[in-house]
Design brief:
Length: 327
């Protein structure tokens, strides 16, 4: 991997028995880059995040490579002992439900200090002071007092900020967030998103941000990967993809989002049909059974069109074709 590259995922296939869950997922993230992974529920976003964290469930079979800066070898092939050293240091995570990451019987300051002591040589006192400093960075009011609180004494938004403090404690190369603000109300959500951006920017960490919410991606990320049916169907700079989506799935997502409603004052449209269960997506283009532009050609797998895995789309009849010719 080049010096700037933090994460490189190549040809990632994940399956359970004969059911394919992820297909040929390929992307990379450089130092300091913030990349969004979007798609409807059931598209394969969380599985992709778990693969990157070496946290795939035991019953799934994974092929391909996941390479992380500072780690020798393919993450998919490392044993749990190696992975536990990497997690929290090279790569850290924030999930939707903060209580799954916190210990209900331990003070939050101690939990942050523990995370520091796990990967750093310092005294307990130093770790405690660093913990208070981290709680201050995630905007917990009166951080020294907050450090003595138990998780149940904090609000949902405060708990998620403690989880973020733990995730940032060892200056990870990569932070993976999976719907971290979905359970929070809108004003708290804005604060947490801002803290995530500030946290990774201050550390020059790479960010993989998973969400079904396009407006969140527009706020947080500079690049986006659009996932459907366990495949990346489109990728590119957020501004470009949102302004001029090419894949018909991306176009549908945008038309169904508040983002587009806000711009065009139109009524909420939805993508026709629903996401099939894993393994039940059509052959050829995975979006074929819901796409109003589908032709016979779409019964074969659309090739990737674009200069790199970071920019392009896989669609036979892309949107904005004429706009491109004319511009
Ligand atoms: N351990 C598993 N065994 C079988 N199917 C799974 C497993 N984990 C996830 N899936 C299926 O894989 C698909 C993608 O799941 P997921 O990555 O959680 O989607 P998303 O995060 O985009 O909502 C879903 O259909 C889900 O039911
Ligand atoms: S490849 Fe065909 S079915 Fe798939 S999104 Fe494009 S037009 Fe629709
Ligand atoms: Mg998910």
């Amino acid at each position: 991997m080049s010096g700037q590259r933090v994460l490189q995922v190549e040809g990632l296939d994940v399956s359970v028995g004969r059911r394919g869950l992820l297909h040929d997922v390929t992307f990379s993230i450089d130092r300091g880059e913030r990349v969004g992974l979007i798609g409807e529920s059931g598209s394969g976003k969380s599985l992709t995040g778990l693969a990157v964290l070496g946290l795939l469930p035991e019953d799934v079979h994974a092929r391909g490579t996941v390479a992380l800066a500072g780690v020798d070898g393919n993450l998919l092939e490392l044993d749990e002992r190696r992975l536990s050293h990497i997690r929290g240091r090279e790569v850290a995570m924030v999930f939707q439900e903060p209580m799954t990451a916190l210990n209900p019987t331990s003070r939050v300051g101690d939990q942050v200090a523990e995370a520091i002591l796990l990967h750093r040589r310092c005294s307990r006192g130093e770790a405690r002071r660093a913990a208070v400093e981290l709680l201050d960075q995630v905007a917990l009011p009166a951080p020294a007092e907050a450090a003595r609180a138990y998780p149940h004494q904090l609000s949902g938004g405060q708990r998620q900020r403690v989880v973020l403090a733990i995730a940032l404690a060892n200056d990870p190369e990569l932070l993976v967030c999976d719907e971290p603000t979905t359970a929070l109300d809108v004003t708290v959500q804005a604060l947490v998103l801002d803290l995530v951006v500030r946290g990774v920017t201050a550390r020059d960490s790479a960010l993989l941000f998973i969400t079904h919410d396009l407006s969140v991606v527009a706020t947080v990320c500079e690049r986006v990967l659009v996932m459907y049916g366990g495949r990346i169907v489109e990728a590119g700079p957020v501004e470009e993809v949102f302004r001029r989506p090419r894949h018909r799935y991306t176009q549908g997502l945008l038309e169904a989002s508040d983002l587009e409603q806000a711009q065009e004052h139109t009524r909420l449209r939805t993508i026709p049909g629903s996401v099939p269960p894993a393994g039940r997506f059509p052959a050829g283009c995975v979006f074929r059974n819901r796409c109003t532009h589908a032709t016979r050609e779409c019964e074969t797998l659309p090739p990737w069109t674009g200069p790199s895995p970071e920019q392009g789309y896989a669609c036979f009849h892309p949107a904005h074709e004429t706009a491109q010719v004319g511009s």
